[in-house]
Design goal:
Blueprint lengths: L12 H4 L17 H16 L6 H6 L7 E2 L5 H7 L20 H24 L4 H6 L4 H24 L20 H15 L18 H16 L2 E4 L19 E7 L4 E6 L3 H16 L23 H10 L7 E5 L10 H5 L18 E3 L1 H7 L6 H5 E2 L1 E3 L5 E3 L12 E3 L21 E5 H14 L3 H14 L6 H11 L4 H12 L6 H7 L3 H22 L1 E3 L5 E3 L1 E7 L1 H4 L17 H6 L10 H7 L12 E5 L10 H8 L3 E4 L16 H9 L7 H5 L12 H7 L13
Antiparallel strand pairs: 1-6, 2-4, 3-4, 5-11, 6-10, 7-10, 8-9, 12-13, 14-15, 14-16
Helix pairs in contact: 2-5, 2-7, 5-7, 7-8, 7-9, 8-9, 9-10, 9-15, 10-15, 15-16, 15-18, 16-17, 16-18, 20-25
Amino acid sequence: MMAVLAGASVVSCQNFLSASSPSTVDADFVFSSYETGKTVMLGAYNTVTGSYTSGLPTNFDDIGSDTERCSVGMVAALVGAAQLYGGQPSYTVENYNINDGSVPGGNWNTFYSAINRCNQVIANIQALSDYDEIIATAPNDWSDLLGQAYAMRATMYLELIIHWGDVIYYTEEELGQDIKELTNRDYILESEIAAMEKAEKWMYAIGEQSHLPDQMTRNYADGLIGRLCFWAAGFQTRRTDLEGGMAFYTDIDGKAISFETWGEDPARNASYGRRSDWKKFYTKAIPYLEKGVNQPAGASLTTVDPRSDKEGRTYGNPFQYYFDQVTKQIMPEESIFEWSIKEQNGNSRIAYNFGRGSSGGSPAYPPKANAQTCTYPAVFYGMFDPQDMRRDASVNVTGSNGSGVEAIYTYALSNRLTIGIGMNKYDLNRQVNPDARQLFSGINYVYMRQADIILMLAEAYAVNGDNAKATTELRKIHDRAFADDIQDAKFSELLASVDGDLYEAVIEERKLEFVGETNRRFDLIRTGKLPHVAYEFRKQLVDQMAELRKNGYVQFDNGNQYPDWIWIKTLNAKEILGYRLTMQTPAGLTEGTDEYGLLVPGWRGQHDDWNAVAEEDGKKGAIVMDNTNVAIQGLFRYIDPDSAEAKALEARGYTKTAWGSGTYTLKSLGEEYSPAVEAQWSSEFMCGYTDADYAAKKAPIYLMPMNETTCLTTGLKNGYGFNSPNK
C-alpha cells in the first residue's frame, strides 16, 4: 500500500491538519468523546462541500458529453484536459499549461484533506478500548461514525480516480508517513470496495436515529459500492509509461490484471480498455444495490405528485416534484446524499451554474444565474420523446431578465440568456421566498438519488442476463416519466430503439434521467462509448446544421421540427391564465392561441409575485407588473416566414425571432452565415479527439494532470501527454 498527501502547500500528513481547532486533528490527536469525533467528521464534510458547489461538477463535469455543454467556454485549464476545444493549439494536451486554473489543483488538495480527516477518525475509533464491542453491536453511534469515515474516504478516492486516474493512496495505517508514490487505481478501487463491504453494515439508514440525506448513511454506502464496482468494471484510459507498463496494474492481491483493450495512443503512453474480469464487479454490486432498493428504510423513489393550487395549474409530474423540493430546500425521500449548502454563505452555485438562466444582477428578480451548464438543440428536440415529462422539467428555452420578466434564450453561446437551450431542474422563480442576491439560493448539490441506485441495479441485472429483474427496475424509472395510459407503449418503443438490448435500454434511460446532473460524461467513459459517441454525435450536429440551412428546419424522428425562426410575444399571464409561474402543460390546448404559447413548453414563466419580494427588499418598482411571460409559436413546427400563418401571427403582435438560425449566424437576427459559429456548435464535443483519432482507435484523454507544485513536492510525473516539471 502506497501513501502520501501531495498539494500546493503540503509536504506531509502532519502538516496538512492542525489540532488547534476541534474540527481538525493531527496524527497524535485522540478523541475525548463521541461528540469530538462527530465534529471532526463534520469538518470533513465542510472541507469538501465547496468542491461540489464551485469546483469539479460546476466547472468540469458539466462538459464533455452529448447532453451537457458549457455556455461560457471555460478556462483553458479545464477544457484542455477534457479535450473539448482541442482544435486550438493552446488547448491541446501537449500545450496545456498544468498550472492554469485553480479548480483541478484545488480539488486535489481538498479531496486529500478530507481523506486525512477520515483516516484520523478511523484510526481513533479503532483505538478505543471497546472497539470490538462497538463493531459487534453495530449499528450504533460510534460504528455509524466509523462507517461515515469509510464512505467519505471511498468517495474521495473514487473522485480522484475518475478525474486523475492513478493517484496516491494511503489509509489509516500510514498516518504520519510521507510516501510519494502512485498506487494503481485497480488496487485502490478493490481496496475501497472491500472496506465499504465491511463498513456498510455498521451504518444507520436514512430515517434511523434522525439521519437525513445530508450525511452518508447505509443507503448511500450501498449505492457507493455500486458506483465503485461499476467504475472498477468500466473502461478507463490508463498509463503505459509507469514501471512495468500495463503490468503496473494489479488487483488487491498484487496479481497482474489482463485487459480488453479498445484503443491505444503510443505517443501519449495511454491505453483505453477494461479489465478482462470486469463482470465479477457487477455480480459483487448486486446484493448491495438490492439492499438499497428493497430495504430503503427512509428513502423512496418519488412516484406521486401531490401538488395542486387554487389557480388550477396542472401538476402530475413526480419527476419534477422531486427537483421542486430540492429547489425549495426540502430534502425529498428520493435523495440519498446531498452536499449541504448554507443559504447565507453566498456560494450556492447550483441554481447559478445548473439552473435556469437570468441576466439579473444582485439584487435582482431573479438575481443573476449564469446558466453555465446548458445543452444542445438535439437534446430538447430529438432525444426526448415529446410525451416524456422529464423533457420540459429538465431542459427549456426561456430564462429571466432580472426584472420579473421571462425572456427567450438566444444563441450567442455565452451565458445567462445567450445559451440556446438551458437546464431547468433548478429555477429561482420556484423558490417560496427567493433571495434576490446571486449565489444565495441555498440549494443543495444532489450527489446520489434513489433513481440512480435503481438504474444501477437494472444495469447489473442486465449485464448478468437477468432480463426479467432488469426490466422491473428499469420500468420504475421509465414509467414515472409517462402518463399511465401510454407507459407500456413507450417502453416498447424504448426497447425497439435499442433492438431489444436491455443493457442498452438502461444506458439510454440513464441519459434521459440525469440530464444536467453530470452523470452522462462518466457513463460514456466507463461504458466504453465515449469515442464512438463523440464521433457520431459530431457527425449528427454537422448534418443537422446543414439540414437547417437547407430546409429552414431540422426534422427529428419523434416528429419534432427544430426551426430557423419562432414567433414570440410578451403577455400578461396573470390576466390570461391566473398565474405567472407555469407547470405541466395541460391537455387540450389549441395550437396558435395565446394560452398555447404561454403553456408550451411547460415549467417556465415567472415567480407569481416578484413584486412582494422586491418590496420586502425595499426595491418597490424594480420589476414589471403586467406583461411578464413569453408566448411562443412555432417552437416545434416550422412556419414559413412568408406564409399567411406567419403574417397572421405578426398581425397579432408576435415578433419573428431567430431560433435555429442563431446557431449559424454571427448574431441572433438575420446576419450572414458564420462558419466559425457553426463550427463551435457542431464540433465542440470532444473536438480534440478527432475523427482521425477515432479511426485510428486512439485512447481518449479525458483526465486531468497534476499541477507543477504537486509534481515537484512528490517527485511524480504526469502521464497522458501532459507536461511535467519532472523530466
